[in-house]
Amino acid sequence: MDSSAAPSSARPHKLLSQDDYQSYDAMGLAQLVKSGDVSAEELLQAAIQRAEVVNPAINAIVTPLYDFARQQIRAGLPDGPFTGVPFLLKDLLCALEGTPMSNGSNAFKGQISPSDSELTRRYKNSGVVIFGKTNTPEFGLMGVTEPKAFGASRNPWNTAHTPGGSSGGSGAAVAAGIVPMASGGDGGGSIRIPAACCGLFGLKPSRGRTPTGPYFSELWDGAAVEHVLTRSVRDSAAMLDVIAGPDASSPYPMAKPASYLQALQQPLRPLKIGFTSQSFVGKAVDAEAVKAVEHSVTLLQQLGHQVEEVQLQFDTEALADSYLTMYFGHVAADMDYAAQLLGTGFGNLDVEDATKTIGYIGKNISAGDFVSAKRRWNQFAQTMAMYHQRFDLLLTPTLASEPVAIGAFEPPAFEKAGMKLVNAFGLHKLLLKTGMVKQMAMDNLEKLPFTQLANLTGAPAMSVPLHWSANNLPLGVQFMAPMGDEVTLLQLAQQLEQAQPWFNRVATI
């Protein structure tokens, strides 16, 4: 990395201060451990100290695992690119043997994972020290992180605002300097949205790039994929080197390049990039989100790329409907699974009213309707394949507005009362016919309309922190690439990181 964009390379003092700890990315901290300048125990203590100071304000960590982390260190850490670096797991999908995984829900509180997921095992192989699990909305269903089970996570840049979701706890923890990197999953933008809200780098890999076993063969019919949120581009590339590749559960394994980290050493060719600020669901986009794209266009042109405004030709209503049908169906399946696991009835699960309503709606969608909606994913993939015959990448806002205030997605009182009534009397077929639930979902998508396309097509996409609003809130921009082309995204991200360094722009909390 260019020294102007890289984290500080100065050696820390004998006693690692918080300023020292936060002045390095994960690779930088690992190098300190490797050179003997600092120990893994000292890094863990620095992370815990930071967490104890800031977590009460941001509610990012919901399950501290400090003793587990100390045992990891005592047992000996693998020799990897991040040996000794403190790390946090999102409390969803990432099963860690012998520890709780609550999935953001009261229904799962106290449920202990019987074994590591394959992705967790690979995280461990990178050498990280896992010392906690981060907050997530119930079942990862929202673009904000405000579960009833644990309370809202808050944005370190302004605690009255959301850090995004569903990996909001991870985003808040990284932005607040607790860790330089944390795990996340992305089924509709859940890595990119918190990255955009928190001033971080967030890459959603291609469908099938990272493993989903042994508990799942695919996540959300292939719409969801897991990776990390980071402060530096090189950390994201280096971790992808460790975790990429199929496992026994992978239904569509992808060929892996030799090294994403090494690819950052190769020069980036001039790119042809199309851009749009038009909402993918036909809603209004705030002026600040448009400014974020305009600023990025100017920067890209200065770097020698050809940038052109475009209009994408696809059915926005079909896109939203296809995503929501998958979403409703999987909530129903997740609730069935939870009911079986917990030995109770579907209607007796201790889940939020909105989750229960969505689950019942999912049960009332026919198998034929679900398959028809899934088949439309191919139409969007074909549209993007034609687009990429002319353009290397697509640039959009990541969000349609700056990070919303805490509670902005909370249903009004009449909707809450309506959901309770519907759930109590089983009126879900009637509710489905009224379109009320779909309208509620569309209202939420209004602020988050740009990210779902990459999930349905399976393409890689990233959010890059290139803009802050007039209120000093981060507002990232999104780049989408053709299926399998994470290399171009990472190379461009590094070029942007060098041209407009963001590492030292940190939230003060």
UniProtKB/TrEMBL annotation:
Residues 42-490 form the Amidase domain. SUPFAM superfamilies: Amidase signature (AS) enzymes (SSF75304). It comes from the Bacteria. Pfam families: Amidase. InterPro entries: Amidase, Amidase_CS, Amidase_dom, AS_sf. Belongs to the amidase family. This is Amidase.
